[in-house]
Amino acid sequence: MRIIADLHLHSKYSRATSPNCDLGGLSEWAKIKGVGLLATGDFTHPQWIKELKKGLKPAGEGIYEYDGISFMLTAEICNIFELAGKVKKVHTLLLAPSFEAVAQFNDAISSYGNLAEDGRPILKMDIAELLDITESTSKEIMFVPAHAWTPWFGVFGSKSGFDSLEEAFGKKKSHIKAIETGLSSDPQMNWMLSSLDGVSLISNSDAHSPQKIAREANVFELNELTYNSVKNAIETREGFVKTYEFYPEEGKYHWDGHRNCNVCLNPSETKRLGGRCPKCRRPLTVGVLNRVYNLADRQQGYLPKGAVPFTRLIPLTTILSAVRGKGEQTKTITEEYFKMVHYFGSEFAALEAPREQLRLASDKEAADAIVHAREGKIYWVPGHDGVFGQLSLEKVDQPARSVKGQKSLMDF
After folding, report:
1. Cβ partners under 8 Å of residue 248, min gap 6
2. Is the pLDDT of residue 412 over 70?
3. Rounded CA gap, 392 and 389, in Å?
């Protein structure tokens, strides 16, 4: 069976999340998007775990079901600690095989932070210690550095991360079987680091509202859907078909910048300016692309052996908004979005439909824009310093730039 999986999101018990991030809202939007396997998020939160136990039904080894959608138990942990005189802040995604494993893990970390305060708890411990605790409670829990390149809270982040997995985890570096690339990087950027060749790259939405589910996702081909089949597919890449990716330019931290001064710069411009904002002279927030370049030991475009392919997609509402010149949450865009979802069965189906079918479901302008988005015939003002990138269907003044699409590994 082929299944689209989004393995990182948050419940209504995390800060800055929609109250609709409950089982009902998440499962409803999973159907709209075309997702078959969804993360629960936030299994460390005591109230949420109660709701999960009450609402989810067993649907196979390590898999649960609600209203026709499969769920896997997941959580994100925030570690804040001092190391060698520097403050480190790192987020980690955890995938768990059972409620029993979750209970043991939650008990083990309960003395390090207030689990009821936030769905993504803050723990005052070294990230390597969290790995030790995770492995001591269950060898089957997957430990995945989340949005690995985000300046704040990424394991490789420019603000509070590390320069390598070895620096972060020492001799247990090999225990890290996967990292999450995050919205501001894509597999092609991560392939520039030879140290990541043995590490699988997964992509997820990190959604804080149901509508944002599956803006990035993973595609698996499995004989049966179980926790171990998904874990094995990620770790071995057998049955790991591809990932769906944001254009990294769309992510909030792709280029360098200073949003208070409306400054957005590529890495070469940042270097020329000595890393300081040209308007206020304060330090710029160094983005993901710059950080990758600093740590890379390969040229962009290198293709490692056994790399999992990826497909770039732009959310349908974003494309329609650019075509119609109206906001994504307006009535016009919402109505057209659901019209197309109803026609094709899901958002993913619409985004990958042939041009002729897209014209039948909408019109030439929308159909052409969706196809152009797939082909990379679009332009961006890249995201920077917490500001999402802005899509343009026509060439605009710098710093927007054209992005070449990459639909499969064969494009290299």
Report:
1. 183, 184, 185, 186, 189, 254, 288, 289
2. no
3. 10
Query: DSSP string covering 276-308, please?
Result: B-TTT-PBPB--HHHHHHHH--S-TT---TTPP
Angle separating helix axes 331-344 and 316-324, nearest 10 degrees: 130
Whether the pTM exceeds 0.85: the reply is: yes
E-strand spans in 33-184?
A: 37-39, 57-58, 64-66, 69-83, 86-96, 122-123, 142-145, 178-180
Q: Are residues 44 and 121 in contact, defined by beta-carbon separation less than 8 angstroms?
A: yes
**Residue 80 in tokens:** 């804040």
Do residues 142 and 177 make contact, with C-beta atoms less than 8 angstroms apart? yes
CB atoms within 10 A of CB 328: 17
242 DSSP β-pair partners: 219
Residue type, 331: K
Integer distance in angstroms from the first to the last C-alpha of the chain?
A: 28
pLDDT at 9: 99
Q: What is the mean pLDDT of the chain?
A: 95
Tell me what pLDDT residue 394 has: 84
Please identify which residue in the block is written with the tokens 């003395």.
111
Give 45's contacts (C-beta < 8 A, 6+ positions apart): 11, 13, 14, 115, 116, 118, 119, 121
